[in-house]
Design a protein that fits this description.
The chain has nine helices and twelve strands. It has helices spanning 11-23, 34-39, 57-67, 81-89, 102-121, 149-160, 168-176, 185-197, 200-203, and strands at residues 3-7, 27-31, 45-48, 72-76, 94-97, 123-126, 129-132, 137-140, 143-145, 166-167, 205-210, 214-219. The longest helix has 20 residues, at 102-121. The radius of gyration is 19 Å and the shape is elongated.
Length: 221
């Protein structure tokens, strides 16, 4: 059973989270402060508040990340961009600001669990292509190909999230980093190169432009 650790000093938040997470069939662990979070039993994902008594959420995030590849969703009332950037820089995977919609919390947890399960295998197959992240290897219809590093990473992100729209900002941050001096145009250029390399008829997928948003990889029927 999937085990979720909810770390928050507000008992009402923990109760709300437990109610909705348990309805998904997930086992829920609770911690009211940072020290209890670090002493908790191993979990598959952590929902972590930043403002905690004792050891704060920043330090908890840092230590949990140092222990291994644990998905971390920061849940906090602090919505300033600088706090989001700091949390993500420390190793958090996503950020949800209070007050939150429980259904959005569930959706974000599902997305993180799905992403980590795919990433742990390091292999994604979509259409006629197979991507092996560990080996940085690509095969299309059984033929091995060589891709530049950034094109590989972009294709892997899109394939891993097939059916979901990824914004240009998300792709830019995940692949080029938060401090990359280039703009969204970089993503557009690399998507065009991937489209040229992988025609729909041969690859079995398409990269759709979602106007005003970003891109979505879809399997061709």
């Amino acid at each position: 059973m999937t085990r979720i650790l909810v770390v928050d000093d507000d008992p009402h938040i923990r109760q709300l989270a437990r109610h909705y997470l348990a309805r998904q069939g997930w086992d829920v662990l609770e911690a009211a402060d940072g020290d209890a979070a670090l002493a908790a039993e191993p979990a598959d994902l952590a929902v972590l508040d930043l403002m905690l008594p004792g050891t704060d959420g920043w330090q908890v995030c840092r230590e949990l990340r140092a222990r291994g590849d644990l998905p971390i969703l920061m849940l906090t009332a602090r919505g300033a961009t600088v706090d989001k950037v700091r949390g993500l820089a420390l190793g958090a995977d996503d950020y949800l600001v209070k007050p939150f919609d429980p259904e959005e919390l569930i959706a974000r947890i599902r997305a993180l669990l799905r992403r980590y399960r795919i990433a742990s295998a390091q292999v994604v197959e979509v259409g006629a292509i197979r991507l092996d992240r560990a080996a940085h290897a690509v095969a299309c219809a059984g033929h091995d190909l060589v891709l530049p590093k950034k094109e590989f990473e972009l294709l892997y992100e899109l394939a891993e999230g097939q059916g979901r729209t990824l914004t240009r900002e998300q792709l830019l941050e995940r692949i080029w980093g938060y401090d990359y001096p280039g703009g969204d145009r970089t993503v557009d250029v690399h998507v065009k190169r991937l489209r040229d390399r992988f025609p729909e008829a041969r690859s079995g997928f398409r990269i759709r432009t979602m106007r005003g948003l970003g891109y979505r990889l879809e399997v061709v029927p």
